Amino acid sequence: MTSARFLVVLDADSTLIRNEVIELLADEAGRRDEVQAATEAAMRGEVDFAASLRSRVAALEGVPVSAFARVRARIEPTPGVQALTAAVHERGGVVGVVSGGFHEILDHIAPELGVDRWRANRLDVVDGALSGRVDGEIVDAAAKASTLKEWAAELGVAPHATIAIGDGANDLQMMSVAGLGLAFNAKPAVRAAASLVIGPQDLAEVVALLP
Fold first, then answer.
1. Which residues are identified as catalytic?
2. Interatomic CA distance for residues 114 and 158, integer angstroms
3. Residue 1 within any structural domain of the chain
4. Rounded Cα gap, residues 20 and 18, in angstroms
5. Could you list the residue range(s) of the whole structural domain that residue 55 is in?
6. CB 64 within 8 A of CB 128
7. CATH number at residue 99
8. 3-state secondary structure the chain
9. How many other β-carbons are positioned within 10 Å of the β-carbon of residue 117?
10. pLDDT tens, 118-165?
11. Does residue 2 belong to any structural domain of this protein?
């Protein structure tokens, strides 16, 4: 079993990267506006995340899998992300990402950004196009929190040596179980609940907080 001194777990959309991937996919379906409004409501905690995700994924029905490459080409890493992952590794830590987004995008961008392990949702595909359904269990707030605890246990990292970084209501449980919960580019409810709020949209600001 690999061990680590500490564990940093980030959300993906609007944290690890500047985009909301589901909105980029919705562009491919010509339905960005409705999906964007639903995403905002979910991130503010106004609606149940899993139900909201299912309805937003339903809007993607018929998008061809060839769209994934176009979406990946539009991804913008958050400033400072590689400085943060490099600093975590230099100090003997591990970087994880747990996301309400999608493996189809994260599997390509996470390793490029220095992420060691990641978990996300999967999109169901039928005949080369999205079916409008999520494949498997949805990664929601409870799943994010349990994943952080599971990874920490696997790595021999004590709870106090974990850091969670997120922006939306879906990250609150994960932030509450971590030793340090950081609000980044965050909605008001998340800023209010966080241990600390990172002001600039630059993940390099987190380096000074690493153990």
1. 11, 13
2. 22
3. no
4. 7
5. 7-209
6. yes
7. 3.40.50.1000
8. CCCCCCEEEECCECCCECCCHHHHHHHHHCCHHHHHHHHHHHHCCCCCHHHHHHHHHHCCCCCECCHHHHHHHHCCECCCHHHHHHHHHHCCCEEEEEEEEEHHHHHHHHHHCCCCEEEEEEEEEECCEEEEEEECCCCCHHHHHHHHHHHHHHHCCCHHHEEEEECCHHHHHHHHHCCEEEEECCCHHHHHHCCEEECCCCHHHHHHHCC
9. 17
10. 999 999 999 999 999 999 999 999 999 999 999 999 999 999 999 999
11. no
Percent of the chain with pLDDT over 70: 100
Q: What angle do CA 121, 74, 143 make, to 5 degrees?
A: 20
Contacts of 192 (CB under 8 A, 6+ apart): none
How many domains does one find in the chain?
Answer: 1
Paired tokens of 2: 């690999």
What stretches in the chain show pLDDT beneath 70? 1
